[in-house]
Amino acid sequence: MKTQLLVETPTHKWLYFGRDPEKNDKIIDTNQYLVQSGNQSLLMDPGGIELFAPMLASLVRHIPLEQLTYLFASHQDPDIISSLGLWDQTLPKAKLYAPWLWEGFIRHFGMNNISYEPIKDKGGKLQVGEVELQFVPAHYLHASGNFHVYDPVAKVLMSGDVGAALEPAEADIFVDDFASHISKMEYFHRRWMPSNRAKSNWVARMRDLDIQYMCPQHGRIFKGPQVKAFLDWFDSLDVGIGLD
After folding, report:
1. Which residues are CB-contacts of 215 (< 8 A; sequence separation ≥ 6)?
2. pLDDT by 10s per residue, the chain, length 244
3. Which Pfam families does the record cross-reference, listed alphabetically (predicted)?
4. Residue 20: what pLDDT?
5. Which of 19, 74, 96, 134 is most buried (most C-beta within 10 Å)?
6. What are the phi and psi torsion angles at 112 (to 5°)?
7. Helices (H) and strands (E) in the chain, counts
8. DSSP H or E stretch at residue 201
9. Whose CA is closest to 65, among 36, 85, 96?
10. Domain containing residue 68: CATH number
11. 147-151 and 13-18: which strand pairing?
């Protein structure tokens, strides 16, 4: 599994995990992100059960396992959190932060030791070492209870399925040409995002934030001016085409 340092500040760092060349071709590729500060870490959308072994092997090259104190699930999909039962055996004292709405569903993946910390609809905050992260509402994008993670210090947004693209494992992890990247995102967003109202609400929220890295759960990462380019494009996109 590919690992890359995304951002490092005096207090913490962001790491990327993904592009696993050994995964089954019929399984959708996913990105995982870790924030590490002091002796605490948060792993966001840790992935499906089939990714547990390569994820664990990659993580322990960067942090002691006891420093993985928090998990985050943006919503309930299996590619997000079906590895939970294995993390539950590996990290019995960890806490999982996830939407309150999905607790009864997420527990089906196996959860006897890790504690479930429900995030209210309005969002919340989490202190990880020396950095305070924000859980930003992203409801109906695409799940009815859904959150993203914003770091105001490193100026990073973990954006879940927003910004997602479907590409081969050998693709680069950063967007190099936004215009050509649109074709890899358009159908996904038009079909999987059900609500133009929810989309517009989210875009308005994001325009108020200083985002230098937008990190989706699938596909490539947007940097600098590409973030605004994505917001402008997404704002004008008609979604919910399954009803056409």
Report:
1. 6, 14, 16, 31, 33, 156, 157, 158, 159, 163, 221, 222
2. 899 999 999 999 999 999 887 778 888 889 999 999 999 999 999 999 999 999 999 999 999 999 999 999 999 999 999 999 999 999 999 999 999 999 999 999 999 999 999 999 999 999 999 999 999 999 999 999 999 999 999 999 999 999 999 888 788 999 999 999 999 999 999 999 999 999 999 999 999 999 999 999 999 999 999 999 999 999 999 999 876 5
3. ODP
4. 83
5. 74
6. -110, -20
7. 7, 13
8. helix 196-207
9. 36
10. 3.60.15.10
11. unpaired
- Closest by CA to 213, choosing from 74, 62, 9, 59, is 9
* 10: containing domain: 2-243
Give me 38's structure tokens: 């002091």
Encoded amino acid at 36, one letter? Q
CA atoms within 13 A on the CB side of 91: 28
The packing angle between helices 225-236 and 178-192, to 10°, is 40
Q: Could you identify the residue written with the tokens 């207090």?
A: 11
- Count of structural domains within the chain: 1
Q: Say which amino acid occupies 99.
A: P
Say if residues 140 and 94 touch (Cβ distance below 8 Å): no
Predicted confidence at residue 15, as pLDDT, reads: 98
Give the H or E element holding residue 119: strand 115-119
Q: Write phi, then psi, for 129 (nearest 5 degrees).
A: 60, -120
